[in-house]
Specification:
The chain is an alpha+beta fold. It contains two helices and six strands, in the order E-E-H-E-E-E-H-E.
């Protein structure tokens, strides 16, 4: 895999094996494909916090409406909560670099 995926939950880095990296990468890219105007992502910086969702693709901010923000939050919190070492999630960040 030439794509680098990093996951941080509550400011703690979560170790990801090949399967988990691939899963997070494909889930996030699937979400991006459903959004208009995201183009081909080489870098993704996605943060979820109580204040909302912050999404940047190739350095450009991508606005999300409340529905999209809920889908992103629920999807990523559900995925991350299944990983070893993750319990309660307050904040989450995914960084993907090609």
């Amino acid at each position: 895999m030439t794509t680098k995926v990093a996951l941080t939950v509550n400011d703690a880095a979560i170790p990801l094996d090949y399967f988990a990296q691939s899963l997070v990468d494909h889930v996030v890219r699937g979400i991006l494909e459903a959004l208009e105007g995201t183009g081909t992502p080489d870098t993704v910086d996605l943060s979820v916090a109580p204040a909302g969702v912050n999404l940047k693709v190739n350095g450009a901010a991508v606005p999300t409406n409340p529905f999209v923000s809920r889908v992103i939050t629920n999807t990523l919190f559900g995925l991350a909560s299944s990983l070893k070492g993750v319990s309660q999630i307050n904040t989450l960040r995914v960084e993907i670099k090609k």
